[in-house]
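Weekly puzzle thread! Below is a chain. First person to post its structure in token form gets bragging rights.
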Amino acid sequence: MRRTPPLSSTAARIKPPVFAELQSRIDRLASRGTELVPLQIGDTWLAPPEAASRALGATDGSDTSIYRYGATAGLPALREAIAQVVRRHGLDVDAEAEVLVGNGGTHALFCAGRAVLDAGDEVLMASPYWPLAPGIFTSCGALPIDVALTQRLYADDSLDAGAIFAAAIGPRTKAIYLISPNNPDGKVLSRQQLERIAAVAREHDLWVFSDEVYADTVFEGEHVSIATLPEMRDRTIVLHSMSKSHALAGCRIGFAIAPPPVVVSGRRISTHSAFNVSVVMQRAALAALGDDAFPRAAKATYRDARDRVLKALAGSPVKVHRADGATYLFADFAPAFEAMGPERAGPRPLIALLERAVDRGVLLAPGDAFGTGYDTCARICTTAVPVERVLVGIERLLDALDAMRAGKP
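Winning reply:
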């Protein structure tokens, strides 16, 4: 019998992919040619700015620079374009010293996190959160700690967000991680809420990881970067992603805005994990950033999708808050499960529902991927396919729920 040596404890602590438990069911349907409605994936059906497509299409095989190693810090022109965009969000950025370019937001966050976190450091994570974030911090050697926040704020906007974090601080707490607008529930943190969180970070000398990849997609309220608040610039790492702002998920371009020492160290980490970000993809990102109209037009499309999906869910036994921003709704099926009773709902009602939904050709992301305590919830991406197709998926989801309530497969 073959036996490999033991794997690392770090790898063991990283959760499996969101759909691991349902994947065999999905694969079986896909092999039959079943057309699936992928509401589980955080993507957009919109084509990227034409300038980005033209930049990719114009790639000339005779241009040998695309085959050579690129600058490990990223293209200077791209860093300057990033700085200009971020300045519109209120941050005056030094393109040379404060921009960390990564292979997507995941890589940028890892490089920045590895620059400031040591083994055993704790990161307080506002939940529900982006499912990849805990694994990224775990890869850095840190310990992610769930702190329930945005669903509580939807229920009671007067809660003190700073006090919520302060109650979770321990002797090994090193950082706070928050997302605004939030993935998965779209909550936009107000200036007052951010000021309370900032006060706690300053009092306890904590780093703040501020995930702002949906900064261009705010429907209600305003986007405020916590880095713009007094005495926060030198302790805040701001995360952005071209995947969300300019529909370039497959190009894998993201970036962090951080204090110069973090960027210096983060670039070392980047060099020793990816060396350089693809030159071709950086050129596409640079072209995309020249289109100021794209994010505004996309926001209008995304707002319409949100409103139409909310209308489709109205009257159903599903609890869902009207998202302030981003491209998701976080649906809680607890009212439906409670009405069924434990015998019909079963021990794992959400999985039972999602299995029925998969069988009907619609996919949602299970809530337990977004933090502790969300095992009756699921994330719905309202932009992964055109809204008419999203509405087909919602119809199938509600049919699955009706079948479950009636005790049918």
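Puzzle host: Confirmed. Bonus trivia for everyone else. The chain has two domains: 9-47+294-405, 63-289.
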